[in-house]
Prior knowledge:
By secondary structure, this protein is α/β, with parallel strands linked by helices. It contains nine helices and seven strands, in the order E-H-E-H-E-H-E-H-E-H-E-H-H-E-H-H.
Amino acid sequence: MKKTALITGASSGIGLEMAHHMASQGINLVLVARSKGKLDELKTELEAKHKVKVETIGKDLSLADAATQVYNETKSKNIAIDYLVNNAGFGDFGMFAETDWNKELQMLNLNIVALTHLTKLYVKDMVASHSGRILNVASTAAFQPGPTMAIYFATKAYVLSFSEAIGNELKDSGITVTTLCPGATESGFQQAADMKGSKLFEGKKLPSSKAVAIFGYQAMMKGKPVAIHGMMNTILAKSIGITPRNLVLNITRKLMEKNQ
């Protein structure tokens, strides 16, 4: 019997490429994003190309009770979720004293609350069946504070901490929890976060969303607790713990600044 994966943020970037890759592996899909139209186009493409079954759910996960609505829809259709990929999320660039609270609240609700709630809902079914894999998408931002993107970095630190903790709780249950931590990636993230011109992206050859998605999928299937994409990102993430905090903050600030 084919397995089924639920992927959030599946209409673009890493989520879109994850959908393509998992479908190519013969995995049925439940795709969630705000843009139902894009998801339906993707459904048609994937079902024709890979002979898998694809369900689409148009939902803004930053809204209250959205996670419950997604869960209830899959239950009403008798769809058991074997793989949960919490990929949806976004960032925002700017000084905390000047940024827009409403956008930041939406970010907190999407990056933290929705991810946690979906995990809470589906993990209970996984525990009952003694099997399941969860992939939570964080970032290399999870390893240090991020001046000029303070809330985004903090949300990703939460995702890493939360995922590692529940992964430990579930280690004897037949369920694995993997945290994917990509660095700067060629996707729509920088445009959505208003980071055009940032030194973190400008003039650099970035890994593709496809490469990151395949790396994340492989790490999830192996049950790796934490998967950092790229050798340099791995070295930097591991070095942060032995580097003075003030130096880490100053370096991060300079990397995030925009070219004048």
